[in-house]
Structure formats: structure tokens, C-alpha cells
TrEMBL record:
GO MF entry, a single one: hydrolase activity, acting on carbon-nitrogen (but not peptide) bonds
SUPFAM superfamilies documented for this protein: Composite domain of metallo-dependent hydrolases, Metallo-dependent hydrolases
Protein name: Amidohydrolase-related domain-containing protein
InterPro entries registered for this protein in UniProt: Amidohydro-rel, Deacetylase_Atu3266-like, Metal-dep_hydrolase_composite, Metal_Hydrolase
Organism, scientific name: Umbelopsis vinacea
Amidohydrolase-related domain: residues covered: 53-336
Transmembrane region(s): none
Length: 402
């Protein structure tokens, strides 16, 4: 009676954060059964997942997938089949003026699930940065109308509060993002990096459910002191109920911050990649590689997977995603853990050698196994900027990119 049975795997229950040996059956795009043993003759396709982990499809809450219309955009479909990411949340690539194209040409054409955090700038991230510079484009009215007309896709509002994005405009972007959020009920995702503005100036605008991304940055707006202690602003954020999102990116993850937080038993609430045209090639590569960094810090796999599935599902209010349950969509990722010596890097080109790597071996969306698709050739501006990143790394300077 089933379409597919995934047998002999170690199923990760993200609700209880436990592992159990079980078979998973798929029928008509849904999880149809999770049982200790399901006979092979009950399905037209049987997948042997012996010694592999069967997980809900990963939900990457910080990506840039508006390919062809923005500086940062990658192709989600080209990477999904080999990474286990079945849901991609685009963090601000589209603004009000560019969202219709994002919906028609990305969301509606993708074999994956794609959601949006609408940029408070109506231009979105067409260019690398400076998007908050022109007052006219930071358009509250158009952002509100766009969100209200697309509540099935838009899950939040995005604003980047770093030196370049604000470009001397202070807290205007934050103030307007707050207005949009208050009028629509969606949370704000706030990107941090180099000040100004300083995090201490804009934390006052943040409310419960808002998202601080790049929480493990080592740049000036960081949460960890040079001595490895948590700064007062961290405690302010937690008291407010702000969600801490990793958002690794090419310039926003530093081992110094991540390892210090881990020593304090503090983890990001959500583990995300900030995968884009630059980070794809320099130190992120994909979400499983990002998760592997935490695996090599000694964090249990069940905890890691939960923070890349059920935790982001709760933030974007897609509660049918992020956990394997009979009746839920059959968004499933299968992983093995390879052992050996693996090189990991952060934004400062600091290196760590890890002994474990999470490797995706199968990805299903609505019960359909995704097939690997070829990535389009890299854009010329990315080739240029990758050489800039390499030069900065040789000088041992921080790479300040998204």
C-alpha cells in the first residue's frame, strides 16, 4: 500500500530529541507509517538506510535563493538533493518591488519549499549592500501591502544593520522594520556585523519572536567578550525572547564566539547557513557542513538536527514541517556520518580539524526523491569578489561580507 519504505534507519524524533531504529513509509506525499519493521513487499520502492540517520527535511532559515535577480542569489534546486534542505527561507533577497518576480520565478518553480523574509528596502538585495541608503525605498506602506497579499510565503521582515547596509542612515531601517512588523504581525530578522549602528542602540526596538541573525559573529556587534564571557546585550536579548539564529555566511561566523558560547552551554536557537553566491564557495559550502562544525564541538546530533528542523519550523509557523509524524508532508533527509579528518574554516580563515562530517545521501520533498541538478555557471561579480575574499584571507583580515 506504500510508495516508498525507508528501512533500517536511525530515525531522529525532533520533538523528543531521541533516536529510534524504525522504518518510515511514504504514500501520496505524506508520512504514512513509522514502525519498528515494515515488510519490503508493501512498497514499490525500498531504500536501505542501515547505519544512516532518517530526519525531517532540513529547514534552512537563512538563505539567499533569488537567483538571476540579486547579487547573492543561488539556485536552491541545484543544491537541495545533495544537502537534505527541503525548505529554504530566503532572508531579504526580495523587497516589495521585486517580490512578485521572486514568487513567480523562484517560489512557484522550485521543487523545494521556499519562503521569504521580505526586505524592508523595496529594492531587496539587488546589489551587495547599501540597500538602506535611499529613504524613498525604505517603504513601510509597500512592505505592509506586499506582506498582507502574500501571507502564505512571507514569514517575516528583514533588515541589515551593519556599517555598509545602513550607510550613515543610523537606525532608520530598524525603525521602519518595526513599523512593518507591528502592522503585519510578522517578526523582524535583524542582521548584525560591523557597527555602526551599535547593537546596544537597536536592541530596544526588538520584541519577543524577532530574530537576531549572525549570533556567532566575532565582529564589533558580537555577543561574546574578548575574554569569552557573554556580554550584557546577550542577556537582554534572551530576556526579550529574541530568537538567536546562526546565519553562518562568509563573514558572520567566528569559532571564537561559537566555541565560547558552547562552553557556556549556549547554542543558537536555529542553525542556518546564510548560503549565497560567495559563502557557497569559501567557508560555508552547505548546511550539512555548517551543522558538522557543531557536531565536532561535541553537540549531540539530535540537538543539532532539531535546531535545523523543528526550531525554524516554529519560527516561520509551518508546524507541519520539521518533524516526522504520520500525516505530515514526507519531507525527509537521510544522512550518514563520515569519519576522518575534515578541515573547517570560519570568517577569519581560522581553521579547525574535525573528525566527523554529516553527508546527505537522500532527500525527499512531498515523498518525491530529489535529483541532483547542475548549478549554473558562477556570475562574474562573484568570481571577482571571491578573489577579494582570498586576498583578505591571505592578509588574515576579517572578511566583511553577508
Amino acid at each position: 500500500p506504500y510508495d516508498t519504505i525507508i528501512q533500517n534507519g536511525i530515525v531522529i524524533d525532533t520533538l523528543s530529541k531521541v533516536e529510534l531504529r524504525a522504518d518510515v513509509a511514504i504514500k501520496d506525499g505524506k508520512v504514512a507509517a513509522i514502525e519498528a519493521s515494515i515488510p519490503s513487499d508493501q512498497a514499490s520502492e525500498v531504500v536501505d538506510a542501515t547505519n544512516q540517520y532518517v530526519c525531517p527535511g532540513l529547514i534552512d532559515m537563512h538563505t539567499h535563493v533569488y537567483w538571476g535577480a540579486t547579487y547573492w542569489g543561488i539556485e536552491a534546486d541545484a543544491l537541495a538533493a545533495s544537502t537534505g534542505v527541503t525548505t529554504w527561507v530566503d532572508a531579504g533577497s526580495a523587497g516589495a518591488y521585486t517580490f512578485p518576480g521572486f514568487r513567480r520565478y523562484i517560489v512557484e518553480q522550485s521543487q523545494c519549499r521556499v519562503f521569504s523574509l521580505l526586505h524592508v528596502s523595496a529594492l531587496g538585495l539587488v546589489a551587495r549592500t547599501f540597500e538602506l541608503t535611499i529613504d524613498e525605498f525604505v517603504d513601510v506602506e509597500m512592505a505592509v501591502k506586499t506582506i498582507q497579499s502574500n501571507t502564505d510565503i512571507i514569514k517575516g521582515i528583514k533588515v541589515r544593520l551593519d556599517r555598509d547596509a545602513t550607510n550613515g542612515t543610523g537606525l532608520r531601517g530598524m525603525e521602519r522594520a518595526r513599523q512593518v512588523s507591528d502592522q503585519t504581525g510578522v517578526p523582524i530578522m535583524i542582521h548584525i556585523g560591523l557597527s555602526p549602528p551599535d547593537l546596544s542602540e537597536f536592541v530596544q526596538y526588538m520584541k519577543k519572536g524577532d530574530i537576531l541573525t549572525h549570533c556567532c559573529t566575532g565582529l564589533s556587534n558580537k555577543l561574546v567578550s574578548d575574554d569569552g564571557d557573554m556580554l550584557p546585550v546577550y542577556h537582554q536579548l534572551k530576556e526579550k525572547g529574541v530568537v538567536l539564529d546562526l546565519g553562518h555566511g562568509s563573514g558572520s561566523f567566528h569559532f571564537s564566539s561559537a566555541e565560547a558560547m558552547t562552553k557556556h552551554d549556549i547554542l543558537p536557537d536555529v542553525l542556518s547557513s546564510d548560503l549565497h553566491q560567495v559563502s557557497r564557495f569559501v567557508n560555508v559550502y552547505d548546511l550539512p557542513t555548517t551543522l558538522s562544525k557543531y557536531l565536532n564541538m561535541g553537540i549531540p546530533l539530535t540537538e543539532i538536527i532539531a535546531r535545523a528542523t523543528i526550531a525554524p519550523a516554529a519560527v516561520i509557523k509551518e508546524t507541519q514541517l520539521g518533524h516526522l509524524k504520520v500525516g505530515n508532508p514526507a519531507d525527509i533527509a537521510i544522512f550518514r556520518i563520515d569519519e576522518g579528518e575534515f578541515l573547517f574554516k570560519d570568517a577569519a580563515n581560522t581553521e579547525r580539524i574535525g573528525k566527523k562530517m554529516l553527508v546527505n545521501t537522500g532527500t525527499y520533498v512531498d515523498g518525491v526523491k530529489l535529483k541532483a541538478a547542475k548549478e549554473t555557471a558562477t556570475h562574474p561579480w562573484v568570481v571577482r569578489d571571491l578573489s577579494v575574499v582570498a586576498a583578505l584571507n591571505e592578509k588574515n583580515e576579517d572578511v566583511h561580507m553577508c
